[in-house]
Write a structure and sequence with these properties.
- The protein has a 6-stranded mixed β-sheet with strand order 1-3-2-7-6-8, sandwiched between helices. Strands 4-5 form a two-stranded antiparallel ribbon.
- Helix content is 30%, strand content 20%.
- It has helices at 31-38, 75-88, 106-112, 130-135, 152-163, 211-229, 231-235, and strands at 2-3, 12-18, 42-48, 61-63, 71-73, 93-103, 117-122, 139-142, 196-197, 200-201.
């Protein structure tokens, strides 16, 4: 078992089951995730599924019944890993990253940011034996309508989207409240200094100091942008 970081009095614990733990070392040692860990707001634990295999070769996959193409991750190593973790503590969710699931969204990220203990299972090959999904998985998550080689990068996306919402992770805690999707709309355009660059000027209203007019402009632009790029969000 490889520990990214472990600190007392953590708010959230995330255990990730994977056959390629090295893939996740870099994403979890930079930026906001690293800050969450260093502040003791979260701990992330990577578990190599092969370590739980009873096979002498530490195999974790086998052919698919029925003659389908591709290999399938076996029940035993995954179940053994899950049972070990759940014997040590209670988990709010046991999540399986898979393309054949509901697409992850900001609402779910907000909800999961309130959890205390989470297990994330990263699939590979053609996925995991359905019996694991039927017996142990409490939530299945896709990050989009496409297929990745494995669930590790998808797991990193989920973890990042959740941990940044924990109070104390972002320097300005109100920043997350104005992100795209937080209120069901895309975020309006943003600008910084200089106010005039090569004749490209910042909208005058943003320089006015009039909070009421600025907020109205932002709401108008957010609605306009959402209608243009993601009309499905308006319909929802």
């Amino acid at each position: 078992m490889f520990f990214i970081y472990l600190q007392k009095n953590v708010v959230m614990r995330i255990d990730i089951l994977t056959i390629f733990p090295d893939l996740l070392e870099s994403p979890f040692n930079h930026s906001m995730i690293k800050r969450a860990i260093e502040k003791g707001l979260a701990s992330i634990h990577l578990h190599n599924i092969r370590d739980f295999s009873t096979d002498k070769h530490k195999s974790v996959d086998d052919y698919a019944f029925g003659g389908a193409a591709g290999m399938v991750m076996m029940v035993q190593p995954i179940e053994t890993a899950i049972l070990k973790l759940t014997s040590e503590r209670q988990y709010d969710e046991i999540i399986y990253m898979t393309p054949d699931a509901t697409v992850w969204n900001q609402k779910e990220a907000n909800r999961l940011s309130m959890a205390e203990n989470i297990i994330i299972l990263c699939g590979h090959y053609k996925g995991v034996d359905q019996r694991i999904r039927d017996q142990y998985i409490t939530k299945e998550v896709s990050i989009g309508d496409y297929v990745l080689t494995g669930g590790e990068l998808a797991a990193a996306v989920l973890v990042d989207s959740v941990l940044r919402l924990i109070p104390g992770v972002l320097s300005d805690e109100t920043s997350a409240l104005t992100d795209s999707h937080q209120d069901g709309l895309l975020s309006p355009p943003v600008y910084t200094r200089p106010a005039n660059y090569k004749g490209w000027e910042v909208p005058t209203v943003l320089l006015s100091g009039n909070d009421k007019k600025i907020n109205e402009w932002r709401e108008e632009k957010a609605l306009e942008l959402t209608q243009k790029i993601r009309p499905d969000m308006i319909n929802d």
